[in-house]
Amino acid sequence: QVQLVESGGGLEHPGGSLRLSCAASGLTFSIYTMSWYRQAPGKERELVASIISPSDSTTYADSVKGRFTISRDNAKDTVYLQMNSLKPDDTAVYFCHARHRRVPGINYWGQGTQVTVSA
How far apart are CA 96 and CA 49, in angstroms? Predict the structure, then answer.
């Protein structure tokens, strides 16, 4: 049974930082492209960042480039999202996503973690 468990969300002031973690189990973590998505109230879910193994090649949404950093630790089956210089527009539920590197139809979602940026 595959599980993706996010943690690290919460309330932060504008300009602050948060670090999200997503611990995976039940899959061969290293062969999955790991991503973070987010969904704000009334908006569609959007891709925030992705990281591919083993190259650790990353991609980011334009809205978070230079502020967010995605990383992974294959030894711990965990992907991270370091979020700096947070803005109120970053407020959303953040979801972890895993997609099989060779079979894109095999993919999994976490349950999400709330990030709220407010003064």
Answer: 10
Q: How far apart are the first and last CA of the chain?
A: 40
State pLDDT tens for residues 24-57: 999 999 999 999 999 999 999 999 999 998 889 9
Alpha helices in the chain (DSSP H): none
Condensed to tens digits (0 to 9), the pLDDT of residues 62-109 reads 999 999 999 999 999 999 999 999 999 999 999 999 999 999 899 999
Rounded CA separation 98/77 (Å): 11
* Tokens, residue 64: 């978070």
Number of neighbours of residue 96 by Cβ within 10 angstroms: 26
Residue 63 has what DSSP assignment? T
Q: What is the dihedral of CA 103, 58, 24, 31, to 10 degrees?
A: 40
The candidate with the shortest Cα–Cα distance to 70, out of 47, 89, 91, is 47
